[in-house]
Amino acid sequence: MNNDKIERSEKIDMAEGMRKGIYILPNLFTTGSLFAGFYGIVSTMNGKYDVAALWILIASIFDGLDGKVARLTGTTSKFGVEYDSLADLVAFGVAPGILMYSWALRPFGRLGWLAAFLFVVCGALRLARFNVQVNTVESKRFVGLPIPAAASMVSATVLLFYHFGWPGSFKKLAILVLIYLLAFLMVSNFRYYSFKDPSIIKRQPFIFLVLAILLLIVIAAQPVVMLFIIFICYIFSGPIGFIMSYPRRRRLQKALHKEHG
User: At the topology level of CATH, where does 2-260 sit?
Assistant: First the structure.
């Protein structure tokens, strides 16, 4: 009964918000992300897989900007959150799923299209879980691999193949494994850094600036290779962090067991 009242209250609040209008700026960035994802699908259908990969990366840039613009300008809304999730499913779920199936997974038959579908459905589950947990988990960490990061990993892989001129049949089995791995990580409980920590923009030691400049130089020298390395490091940061924090979690569990025992 209480749940019905809460649901009715939320619907009333959303309806009131819609009557008052919507915030244009952050939703324009969300629309840009949706457009980039859709154009990625169009490019895939035309056989331009490298172009599709680039547009998915562009979608991830727009997706990062819409949330930051909404927070900085105080224009967050329930409408914006729902619209953002729908756009994310197209740009980072459907678009990379179709791209990977057309580019690499088609020869695997049923196993290939099931891998692409699993990527899409796990991305949808990841978005749904994020929406219901957004107020109950710490903002510094994501639970499960964010779907934009998974889509960006797909794009970086395609661009890496084009960069080195590898044939489309090269290491297709590894790509199949990668898609299943990304799908699993999105619905896992591994924690990933969210880059929403306010301390990032505060004063930092001078050496951090020097390291940041060096990193930018290396990225500019080999952008495709460095993007792939950055994304693969982020992908595995969740499982590695889980393994490294295991002793600490065990100590906490033992302490709690003694306390309640």
Answer: Four Helix Bundle (Hemerythrin (Met), subunit A) (1.20.120)
Token pair recorded at residue 59: 């979608």
Query: Rounded to an integer, what distance in angstroms lies between the CA atom of residue 62 and that of residue 152?
Result: 13
All residues at 6 or more sequence positions from 238 whose CB lies less than 8 Å from its CB, including other chains: 145, 185, 188, 190, 191, 192
Q: How many C-beta neighbours within 10 Å does residue 16 have?
A: 9
**By the 8 A CB rule, do 33 and 83 touch?**
no
Residue-wise pLDDT for 81-106, tens only, equals 888 899 999 999 999 999 999 999 99
User: What distance in Å separates the CA atoms of residue 44 and residue 105, rounded to the nearest whole number?
Assistant: 13
| Rounded CA separation 181/154 (Å) | 11
How far apart are alpha carbons 211 and 209 in whole angstroms?
5
Residues 42-80: pLDDT tens digits? Answer: 999 999 999 999 999 999 999 988 777 777 777 677 888
- Whose CA is closest to 101, among 145, 49, 57, 149? 49
Measured distance between the N- and C-terminal CA atoms of the chain, rounded to whole angstroms: 37
Residues 146-171 pLDDT 10s: 999 999 999 999 999 999 887 655 56
Q: Are 140 and 200 in contact (CB under 8 A)?
A: no
